[in-house]
């Protein structure tokens, strides 16, 4: 959704109705996660994707239908044993989509939501997908304000509280309530879609490998910062557009920079005077991934220094070093691919093995 919001915001500002399809539930080996979206706008322009091509043709027609009727629809697509080439997911999964018309009258908060996402201001959009409340009704919830309604005051109050909790985690998913927000009932199903700021990638060491890692990090959706204490290397012209470049001693910069459970830290300095104080700081704070470049000998020396600095085995176990998966990488770009592959594998619990050597679902759901 984040990627297509600029187009949607433009259509909305122009007063052009559009049909918006959003994945609200998946099962088995579905190719897209909840929140993935596709929209059909003026002139039958299409943006986004909900299945990577499996059902987009059918969704195109659904989006046109809901714009014409003004009524939202909930549709499920799955694999067909009778005809694998019929409309369905030949990967064997199943997705449920909410397809709704969007206009200023039906969703008066949409413009403000699009502006907030563009500005990096966290917001959660709650949408009714099933039950006695109006399907497609929306409630936009920020940290300090609310806009819209799901139909009843009690439901709005309960959903607002949950939406702010999901927003703090950057989480997206379904919640169930009674018609007036009763917590132990499931008459109304609401989809909470959180738009938290992009996660951070902090790259330390302004070398050629850092430029390649920064480029692939931005491609994966991270907000990337490159930091190095040497001003001759830490210059914006050496890095992709949009990458922040900071001249500072790495451990000092990290000490003053907030991190969370989504933050990725890549230490590419492979110089003890930089990376040991930096890793002492990094391994004591929240982060999704902490990787350090260096040879086996550098790694062994680094681990000894870190133990001498007082780090315990549990903290040291968080360190991915030498950084990256074993792809036989040589060039900076190839090394960046191996680092990105390790980050993705760690995030989703992947083995890093070739899919030809594995069995079972390709996209297992999180437990």
Secondary-structure-derived class: alpha/beta
Report strand %.
15-25%
Number of helices: 10
Order of helices and strands: HEEEHEEHEEEHEEEHEEHEHEHHEH
Computed CA radius of gyration, to the nearest angstrom: 23 Å
InterPro entries: MoCofactor_Util/Proc (IPR052698), XdhC_CoxI (IPR003777), XdhC_Rossmann_dom (IPR027051)
Protein name: Xanthine dehydrogenase accessory factor
Pfam families: XdhC_C, XdhC_CoxI
Describe this structure in words.
This is Xanthine dehydrogenase accessory factor. InterPro entries: MoCofactor_Util/Proc, XdhC_CoxI, XdhC_Rossmann_dom. By secondary structure, this protein is of the alpha/beta class. The strands form 3 sheets. The protein has a 6-stranded parallel sheet, sandwiched between helices. Strands 3-2-1-5-4 form a 5-stranded antiparallel sheet, sandwiched between helices. Helix 1 packs antiparallel against helix 3. 38% of the residues are buried. About 2% of the residues have low confidence.
Q: Could you give a short description of this structure?
A:
This protein has ten helices and 16 strands. The strands form three sheets. Strands 13-12-11-14-15-16 form a six-stranded parallel β-sheet, with helices on both faces. It has a five-stranded antiparallel β-sheet with strand order 3-2-1-5-4, with helices on both faces. Helix content is 31%, strand content 23%.
Fold topology:
Layout: H1 5-14, E1 18-27, E2 37-40, E3 46-48, H2 56-69, E4 73-78, E5 94-102, H3 110-119, E6 123-130, E7 138-141, E8 146-148, H4 153-169, E9 173-177, E10 188-195, E11 200-204, H5 208-219, E12 223-228, E13 244-247, H6 250-255, E14 264-267, H7 272-282, E15 289-292, H8 296-308, H9 313-316, E16 319-320, H10 332-348
Parallel strand pairs: 11-12, 11-14, 12-13, 14-15, 15-16
Antiparallel strand pairs: 1-2, 1-5, 2-3, 4-5, 6-7, 6-10, 7-8, 9-10
Helix pairs in contact: 1-3, 5-10
């Amino acid at each position: 959704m984040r990627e297509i919001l600029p187009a949607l915001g433009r259509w909305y500002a122009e007063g052009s109705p559009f049909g918006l399809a959003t994945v609200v539930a998946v099962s088995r080996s579905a190719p897209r996660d909840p929140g993935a979206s596709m929209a059909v706008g003026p002139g039958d322009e299409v943006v986004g994707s909900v299945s990577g091509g499996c059902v987009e043709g059918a969704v195109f027609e659904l989006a046109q239908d809901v714009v014409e009727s003004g009524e939202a629809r909930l549709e499920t697509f799955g694999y067909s044993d009778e005809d694998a080439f019929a409309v369905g997911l030949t990967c064997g999964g199943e997705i449920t989509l909410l397809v709704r018309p969007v206009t200023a009258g039906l969703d008066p908060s949409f413009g403000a939501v699009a502006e907030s996402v563009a500005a990096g201001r966290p917001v959660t959009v709650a949408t009714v997908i099933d039950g006695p409340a109006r399907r497609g009704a929306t409630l936009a919830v920020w940290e300090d304000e609310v806009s819209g309604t799901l139909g009843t005051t009690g439901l709005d109050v309960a959903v607002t509280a949950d939406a702010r909790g999901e927003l703090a985690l950057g989480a997206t998913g379904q919640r169930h309530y009674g018609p007036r927000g009763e917590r132990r009932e499931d008459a109304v199903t609401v989809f909470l879609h959180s738009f938290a700021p992009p996660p951070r990638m902090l790259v330390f060491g302004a070398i050629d490998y850092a430029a390649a890692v920064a480029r692939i990090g931005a491609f994966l959706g991270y907000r990337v910062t490159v930091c190095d204490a040497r001003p001759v290397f830490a210059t914006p012209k050496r890095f992709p557009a949009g990458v922040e470049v900071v001249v500072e001693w790495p451990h000092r910069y990290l000490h003053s920079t907030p991190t969370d459970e989504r933050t990725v830290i890549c230490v590419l300095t492979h110089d003890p005077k930089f990376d040991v104080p930096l890793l002492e700081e990094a391994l004591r704070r929240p982060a999704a991934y902490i990787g350090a470049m260096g040879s086996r000998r550098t790694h062994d020396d680094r681990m000894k220094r870190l133990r001498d600095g007082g780090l315990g085995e549990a903290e040291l176990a968080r360190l991915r070093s030498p950084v990256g998966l074993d792809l036989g990488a040589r060039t900076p770009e190839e090394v960046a691919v191996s680092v990105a592959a390790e980050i993705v594998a760690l995030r989703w619990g992947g083995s890093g093995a070739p899919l030809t050597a594995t069995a079972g679902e390709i996209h297992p759901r999180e437990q």
